Amino acid sequence: MVPGPRGVPLLGNLPEFGKGPLAFFEKLHARGDVVSWQFGPKPSLFIAHPEQVGELLTEVERTFDQPDLGIAFRTLLGNGVVVAKGPDWRRKRSLVQPSVRPKQVRSYAATMSECATDLAESWTDGQRIDVKQHMAALTQLIAVRTIFGVDTAADAEAIGRAMDVAQQEIGAEFSGIGAMLPDWVPTPGRARIRRATAVIDAEVARIVARHRDGDTERPDLLSRLLTAQDETGAHLSDQEIRDETVTLYIGGHETTSSTLVWAWYLLSRNPDAYDALTTELDQVLGDRTPAFDDYTHLPYTQAVVKETLRLYPTIWLLTGIAKEGAVLAGRPVPVGTRVWSSQWVTHRDARWYPEPEEFRPDRWLAEAEEIPEYAWFPFGGGPRVCLGTRFAMVEAVLILAVLARRYRLTVDPGEIRPVPSLTLQPDKEVRATVQAR
Ligand code: HEM
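That is the input. Now the predicted structure with protoporphyrin IX containing FE docked in place:
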């Protein structure tokens, strides 16, 4: 364990971390694989080696606690699976998990392809687009349709708009000083999150009531959750259904849309990779719209998504708080120490990825076996690994396949830098020209 840069009294390294967390973590990593630092008064450890990342993630819920996500998240997500801990989390996870199994994802895949095809139909040759806006609208439509099963544009818009407001406010809380303030401080941002949550609650209650009255054989996540039973035969309560559907939406929407924005940026800057992608799509799909069964036959498209998540992991940070018995690299970690891992740093380590800054999807085909476990962890790992991994991979692959088969997107020149907020966001508008192939 190596000491990190000297901090300032009381605040420790907090000012430097606050100014630029990605650069700060890179600086810590330059000192070693396990580096101590001060997050304000809290003793912290930064870990970069895949072995220690694995030790942290696989021990969450045992010798490491997941930190409290804060009042903003708790207001919006209630006590859903992302927020819950201990036996309550275990019960919820086992009730939600069946709704996102590969068998179920198959039934959502048709909606994913359909929504992407509608977007492709709406594009015209030479059109200029705001990539972030188009990807956010597409993944939002997919989320509201697969989760809530809403069919009408008006319903989709009502719930989508309420979610947008809440999500923006949560992002603002995390980018500003909000996340540092104690829960009881009443900020205007927190009041706005409460108001947006009330609108969401009303919308979700309306949709749940309609599902309860009608048929629960519908192919959406909400119907799966309404029929789910724990080992005692008990169903999720209305409050729990509300918490889990909102959690799935928030967990999956911005993470997937940002991944797609970065994918278009990287493909645009790497024409050879774009060509390899379209070659695969032409060979495998021809003129067909892709379906779930095509997923396994599109290894290069999958590799594009994996490589995008390596370079721009939308969730760029995972932490744990040491409990009794916590050990890293064979040494005990004092109780209460906050341990920080960052996908941004580990994913760009030349020991696991030759030419780490290069976008090379083929490394996932030719060299995949040489990449150590937990050197790639965009979806986390261990008992709390992302519940939507399969959902997200299938969604991103099908969207890329539908759109790249028909169009070439050229993102305007200039470097786009990542800004670490709740997710890794581009620092400016990502504008592109759409060209029919
Ligand atoms: C590219 C897209 C996505 C990324 C990068 C991502 C990433 C993550 C990460 C890093 C975690 C924390 C894992 C850990 O603590 O070890 C997580 C948890 C979670 N994700 Fe995702 N996710 C994505 C898409 C989705 C989707 C589409 C859904 C839902 C359909 C979803 C639902 C969840 C849920 C419910 C959890 C909490 C699991 C738990 O605490 O037990 N995610 N995700």
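Residues 57, 81-82, 93, 100, 247-248, 251-252, 255-256, 259, 314-315, 318, 378-382, 384-388, 391-392 surround protoporphyrin IX containing FE (CB under 6 Å).
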